[in-house]
Hints:
The chain has about 260 residues and is α/β, with parallel strands linked by helices. The chain is built from 9 helices and 10 strands.
Amino acid sequence: xxxxxxxxxxxxxxxxxxxxxxxxxxxxxxxxxxxxxxxxxxxxxxxxxxxxxxxxxxxxxxxxxxxxxxxxxxxxxxxxxxxxxxxxxxxxxxxxxxxxxxxxxxxxxxxxxxxxxxxxxxxxxxxxxxxxxxxxxxxxxxxxxxxxxxxxxxxxxxxxxxxxxxxxxxxxxxxxxxxxxxxxxxxxxxxxxxxxxxxxxxxxxxxxxxxxxxxxxxxxxxxxxxxxxxxxxxxxxxxxxxxxxxxxxxxxxxxxxxxxxxxx
Length: 264
């Protein structure tokens, strides 16, 4: 009976591992898609931006416009949703006097293309190059949130923006998966690595990390490990903040105003 029970448990383990391996892309990238003729509706003036990549992918973004912009925020969003949602998330930054260019990754919203880690890094750099058409590097803030932190860090490691802001970053995707699926051999599970810790030592612009103390999706220990890798990092915490609610804290917006040197 004991042997049968162990075999059943082993079979369940193997099946669960196989399912996680097969469907990991949909777990990592919880994308919503939009029809190409979808019409966005926001209170803030904006225009749609597109980039065509060499592999045939069409990338889509929204450029929100401030009346007299003090600079531009290139915003890499989290792993869920699309620009119809994230547009609402970034609108308050425009109210603080900044243009915002927020983009959808491959397979999100109107963006197309096969997801491959190296291509997604290249995509991120291309969005920065597009931002340079309208703003100088010394007035561009690269901002990453959760999954988007990896792309923001990569861009800042390859270019030199005015500053880098990271909201709830992870040390690596492996560290997050280990926290959630500790019973599985993560090294053999992941098709995507997103090693933020490998790129952040190469960033030479000012860096601010903001993390909630009660984050159970990306535990704050991820940020504490990252700050050991670059002396330029200014680490800020939001007491009682979780993973998706930092914008509901006045402390968060006070930090944002200080970091962006808001003058409006």
